[in-house]
Amino acid sequence: MEEAEAKRLCTLLSPLRLADYELRCGGDPIAALRLHCWNTEISEAFYGPLQYLEVAMRGCMTRELTSYFGRADWWNDPRPQLTYGGRQRIDEAVQQIQRIGLSPTPHMVAEELAFGFYVSLLGSGRGYDQRLWRTALYRAFPGYRGRRQGLHRQVDHLRIFRNKIAYHGSIHHRHLVADHDAILLCLGYIDAGLAATVQRHSRVPEVLGRRP
User: Fold this and answer.
1) Whole-model pTM above 0.70?
2) Are 45 and 203 in contact (CB under 8 A)?
3) Which residues, in sequence order, are CB contacts of 108 under 8 Å at separation 6+?
4) Separation CA 98–CA 142 (nearest Å)
5) How far apart are CA 130 and CA 139, in angstroms?
6) Distances (CA, A) of 150 to 92, 99, 145, 147
7) pLDDT per residue over 74-129, tens digit each?
8) Which string of DSSP letters, residue by residue, matches the chain?
9) Which among 25, 73, 159, 164 could bridge 106 via Cys, Cβ 3.0 to 4.6 Å?
């Protein structure tokens, strides 16, 4: 690729967005584009492990909350006392399902709720430690032996990382080996076999080995 063409593409993709890449590549637009392409590739590679973590967390947390409160729409039980933000996310999920002409079921609502909602249930909330963690949610993570706060910090870090990827942000500058290890660690808290399977099929190590 000629330098003039590289500069044209950098301008097309957004000078502000590519400025960080050019800065890290000594002002070389061709190298900046290569790094940008690799950033896209490594983001795609992380999609799989992050997807399994999100789906597994949603599934196991929903299972334990449903079992403890004795109803699939556990959020409508008065005992959880969800925060205003949590309640709002539930209402938005219901409205989103209704918007496409469907009658919301508890399963649909649980599937519609974002990763951030489930991460928030591991936070302090309105007495979540007593209402949710000690009564039900600790069972969703049989491989974890620490305090709720520690688990929340770990998964919230991955929530931020996931959102960075979802909004096409740059992640090339991060300690990506540590990010990958953190995902596998949290998967292991849920199920060691699942963590091993994700590790075996993850493309992250291979793509990291081709970093420009």
Assistant:
1) yes
2) yes
3) 97, 102
4) 36
5) 14
6) 29, 38, 10, 6
7) 999 999 999 999 999 999 999 999 999 999 999 999 999 999 999 999 999 999 99
8) --HHHHHHHHHHH-HHHHHHHHHHTTT-HHHHHHHHHHHHHHHHHHHHHHHHHHHHHHHHHHHHHHHHHTSTTGGGSSSS---HHHHHHHHHHHHHHHHTT----HHHHHHHS-HHHHHHTTS-TTTHIIIIITTTGGGG-TT--S-HHHHHHHHHHHHHHHHHHHTT---TTS-HHHHHHHHHHHHHHH-HHHHHHHHHH--HHHHHTT--
9) 73
Measured distance CA(74)–CA(205) in Å, rounded: 39
- Which tokens go with 206? 């291979």
CA distance 49 to 136: 25
Model confidence over 159-177: pLDDT tens digits? 999 999 999 889 999 999 9
Instruction: Name the token pair of 136.
Output: 């039900």
Residue 24: pLDDT band (50, 70, 90) is confident
Is the distance from CB of 80 to CB of 132 less than 8 angstroms? yes
The domain ranges of the chain are: 1-31, 45-70+115-208
